[in-house]
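Async update (no meeting this week)

Hi team, since we skipped the sync, here's where things stand on the single-chain job. The sequence we agreed to prioritize is pasted below, unchanged from the tracker. I ran it this morning and attached the output directly underneath so nobody has to dig for it. Comments welcome in thread, and please keep replies under the output.
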Amino acid sequence: MSQKVYQSMVQEAAYRRLVQKFKYNYSYTVTGIIPVNTTTPIILAIEQDADFYIEKITGSVYGPCALVTGIPGGGATDYDMPGTAAGFAGRGLSMQITDTGSGRELTNGFIAAEAILTPGYDLGFFQPYRINYMAKRNSKIRFDFRNRDTQANANQQVEVVLNGYKYAMSETDIQTVMKQMQ
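Output:
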C-alpha cells in the first residue's frame, strides 16, 4: 500500500472520529395501544443531550389486540386484512404528527398509518418513508393516533420508529458558528 493511500485512510478515520463526537445515528420509538373508536395522543420527548434530525420513519400496526397487553387475538374488525377471512385488521388507524414546541404540523391532518409506516399492516418491509425534519433538543413531538374501527375489542397496537442523526453540539457552539458565517 502506498504511503499516500495510507495517509488518506488515516485522515478519513480521524475525520470520521471527529464528526462522530458531534453527529451520530440514532432512533426514537413510540409505542401505544389505541382503543376502539378513540384518538390517543402519545408524546415523544427529544432528549436534552442533542438536537435530532429525523430522516426516516417506519412502523408497524396490528389488531385487533388485547387492550392491556397488545397481544393480537383476532376478532371482528371493520377493516379486514385483504385476502383473509375475518379477524385481522388491514386498515383503520390514522395518525397526525405535530412538533408541539413550534406548533408545526408535520402531516396535513390525519393520514392513514399505512401510507407512511412500513411495513404498516403488512409483513414485508419496504423502503422507509423519508421525512427530513430537525427537532430541537427538549422538544416534544406529538403523535395523535385515531382508531376508526368500531367493533368491540378491535384495539390496534402501533409502533413507530424515527431514525436520523443526533447533533450533540451545544447551543453556544451553534451560535458561535452562526456568527462566523455572517
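Quick observations from my side:
The chain has one domain: 24-169.
Helices lie at 3-22, 113-116, 171-181.
Reply here if anything looks off.
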